[in-house]
Amino acid sequence: MTALEMSSMHRLSAQPHIAQVDSGELFEENNTPLAPEVIESLTNFCSKYRETKNEQAIYFRARYEGIRQMTRLILLFIAFLEVLGVTVCMRKAEYTLSQALLFTHYTMVTTGYGNYPIPKTPAYQVYLIAYIFIGVGAVSILVSRIERAYFLFP
After folding, report:
1. This prediction's pTM
2. Are 74 and 152 in contact (CB under 8 A)?
3. Angstrom distances, CA of residue 131 to CA of 36, 43, 71, 117, 142
4. Residues 30-54: pLDDT tens digits?
5. Is the distance from CB of 16 to CB of 29 less than 8 angstroms?
6. pLDDT score recorded for residue 108
7. How big is the CA angle at 44 (ends 43 and 45), to the nearest 5 degrees?
8. Model pLDDT for residues 7-22, shown as the tens digit of each residue
9. Structural domains of the chain, ranges and CATH numbers in brackets
């Protein structure tokens, strides 16, 4: 007998009007066996309950795996954006590696302390605007995916 069957039988035996003996038969309080229709309906209920639980487990497993895969992709995309931002900042704005890392990170998470001067060339400013929109969007998606991973229930 599986754990699910035992737990459902335990719930049945906890009810005041149904008892179970060691042979596995179900009896009412007055020691008369339950009608075959009642036993059949209880068996159908237990099997439908098991099927529903299995379907729910498959659904949550698939949803969790989907969220994990999307989170990995978003993390890779954010890492790519960081590398791209550091490269552009080091070449165009002439930042050091630590300055470029800090600037790109601050820019992507919208902190923007303004510690470093930004080049005033139109091409760099257009790049920076696009970088901000894409970076903020990627970080927002990452946060929502993490939230969904921890709170699987809609």
Report:
1. 0.63
2. no
3. 70, 60, 20, 17, 16
4. 667 777 888 888 888 889 999 999 9
5. yes
6. 87
7. 90
8. 445 444 444 455 454 4
9. 59-150 (1.10.287.70)
